[in-house]
Amino acid sequence: MESSTGPTWGRCWRTGRRSLLTVDIRLATEPDLPGIFFIYDREVREGVATFDTEVKTAAERQQWFADHRLPRHPLIVALEADEIVGWGSLSPWSARCAYIRTAENSVYVRAGCQGRGIGKALLADLLERGRAAGLGVIAARIVEGNPASIRLHEAFGFETVGVMRRVGEKFGRILDVRIMQRRMDGPAN
Which domain holds residue 21? Predict the structure, then answer.
């Protein structure tokens, strides 16, 4: 939905609703990119959930979208009343071929919409898509000091496999990163 001043994303923040809600989850399409990057760019500029420090250009956004068209690396959105309230993706863990069975998940929920089950819905969908695509492991890199993301991943069976100390720096802070993984094959399911 567009207004005379631009996109009207932000319903959750304006209304302050905190109830659990039903969201629709679907594969992202190119017209979803402004809504996805509305959420992501805020974290780039103000948060530490991503270690990106500059907003992506239009060309970089297009390439990122193109990189998420394979079944092993989907890009999904969560919609409430046709507005994007969150998004998630599976991305290659590494460009090295031996890592083909491993993906890294990303889940972002619009400011003001957290705590309502949107992240859970996105992560559940990503895990289902990852299993269907034959992934063996889904990993997460979570900056220390983000207990909500750690709890979310633990609720879905992710385990901490290590902490990389002092590997990031953003806004003058030195940051640790927790590595978590969920085995999609074998007895640990």
Answer: 2-183
